[in-house]
Amino acid sequence: MNQTPRGRLVVIVAGLAAAALFVLGRLVMLQVAQHAEFERLAQGVQVIYRDVWPDRGRIFDRNGNLLAGNITDYRVGASPRLIADADRAAQELAQFLDRPVEDLAASLKRKEAPYVLLAVPVQSQVGRAIEALDLNGIQLEPLVRRTYPHGRLASHLLGFVGLDRQGYGGVEAYYQRELAGEPALSPTRHDPLGQSLGPRPKPGLDLILTLDLDIQYVAETTLARALQDTGAKSGTVIVMDPRTGAILAMASLPDYDPNVPPTRADEDVRRNPAISDQYEPGSVFKILTMAIALDQGVVTPQTTYTDLGFVEIGGALIRNWDGRVYGEQDMTGLLAHSLNVGAALVASWIGPDRFYAGLQRFGIGQPTGVDLANEASGILRLPGDEDWHEADLATNAFGQGVAVTPLQMITAVAAVANHGVMMQPHVVKETVQDGVHHVNVPRPSPYAPQGQVISPQAADQLRAMLAEAVKREIRRAQVPGYAIAGKTGTAQIARPGGFYDPEKTIASFIGFFPVDEPQAIILVKLDEPTSSEWGSLTAAPVFKALAERIAVILEIPPDEVRKVAEDGGGN
Amino acid sequence: MAQQKLRISQSWSRAKLRLRMRSLRGWAVVLLVAAFVGAAQLIQASQAARAGREIEQLKARQEQLARQNAELEAELTRLRDPRRLEQRARELGFVPATGEQVEYLPVPIR
Predict the structure, then answer these.
(1) Which one of B44, B67, B75 makes the best mutation probe of the A interface by having the most chain A beta carbons within 10 Å?
(2) Contacts with A321 (C-beta within 8 Å, 6 or more apart), sequence order
(3) Which pTM does this prediction carry?
(4) Which residues of B touch A72 (CB under 8 A)?
(5) Range list for CATH 3.40.710.10 in chain A
(6) What DSSP element (H or E) covers A118?
(7) Which residue from A35, A237, A283, A421 could staple onto A338, CB 3.0 to 4.6 Å apart?
(8) In this predicted model, what pLDDT tens digit does every residue of A466-496 receive, in sequence order?
(9) ipTM above 0.85, yes or no
(10) Which CATH superfamily is domain A213-257+271-426+447-567 in?
């Protein structure tokens, strides 16, 4: 043995070197050679794989008001083994959770359980308050929930989202794919932060609607008042810009709160009557009969006929709504007095081929293709169909024996307001991805044709005739300062078995303004009003109330002011 | 002669020791460099881990703030609800304006 100091130093250095080499070698083994294996082992303990869902896209009105968003609730749980003083923790939690202290304490004392659920769902404010307690062993798991901050407002149009993250009805269902985004199967760290380590899910798109929150509110409150005043059991209002097909409001009552989970009892209420319910439109349909007749050159506004109070067509005896004889009438008089005899005669002059081809051009009997879920197609029997009779030509002319949805009806009449051009009705204006706005091009309907459905001349003539009809006969629809073009409808309700209900009616009114350059078209439909059966007495005043408010919201100056502006700007 | 042999032997031993020491110094330098590299790598790894942890915490905070933001947005929307605003406006004595009550000023276009 070398006992010199230098020898001992050599031995120590050699020993240290050997130890360092061993440590270094082990490090290299662990961090390089066995890296993959240890990483796999660690991930097995620390990481779990699960579907990470992105936040659902939000929905805004055309002015940026939030209509549907997401808020976070919490699931509150506990790991009893980590809780030192269960009684104290229970007392603190009981301030915020709707559970007795003893009950909570019992849960927190179950030391054999790795996890106990204390409450779910807990609102965000409560969740944050519990978080602030900073109790060891208490866990808060966020649960994102769809919220509709305006409650029932526009509920039929928006639809709702189920617990399965699926949209039901309205925009939520139609744009499910865009709103939902794409989930990602992502490794997630199993720690209190629960951070996702893998690919981020693709977030859903935000949608900007054509809907105007203020107009929607006015539509709903006016409709609610109308149901009270008229005793109607339900009703629908649609407001549209005829120049674009943009839907500004779509309201139906009774409605529902989309924040509340659906039940079997409210299934019917959750259906959107504006697009899913079909009804016989009655006399508002005369607008289309007259449009086809003018377009085909069968009549002019000055064409006259002698109204005898009845006419027989195809074996059916047609009478006027009041049974009266009106004598010689021109086409404006036919519309102003809403004469069934005149409409049936005009349809017979047009002939079945041209009449039904015209109705199909207006989209009757086909879905409009609006970007809302669950649209009905309406019913239009055609010559050649087994159940079509010659008498249908006459009755269809004034809106009997044909079924439409409110949206089909307003879309068709909007073409008259828009110089004969029918626009695709739609509710989504823009989509937003990562803050970038994209104009949403409405998917063209595979059913309803758009474009020039009647000539501009025929449309302009009819517009003037409808304005004259309102001026002459529908006082309750007149709006001070504005000329209104429109038509009432009072339709009987078909019952199973092919009979009409002898007492109940559907009262409606469709009108648009300003007459020379229409910016808004409004449909009002009241089901089974009891104060009066007539659309002129029940639906027309609702139109007036709406038009007055909408003129202000849309900043449409009265006719006189617009005329002055057009003539030279007040010089 | 014997003394000379001893001196040679001692010189030989010293030379061998010097050689060994020189070799050991070389190994020590290698070990030092390796230790330095290892330590640097460990420091870097620990810094990366700490930074990763901070990123995760910031992400969690970001998500928490996004959630709070969404809640505040919903709350703001509730406060701006037209039903509430109308009720408040009516309490203050306002009524809805009609078209005729609005003054429009035609602006000449030159």
Answers:
(1) B67
(2) A283, A338, A340, A490
(3) 0.83
(4) 67, 70-71
(5) 213-257+271-426+447-567
(6) strand A116-122
(7) A283
(8) 999 999 989 999 999 999 999 999 998 888 7
(9) no
(10) DD-peptidase/beta-lactamase superfamily (3.40.710.10)
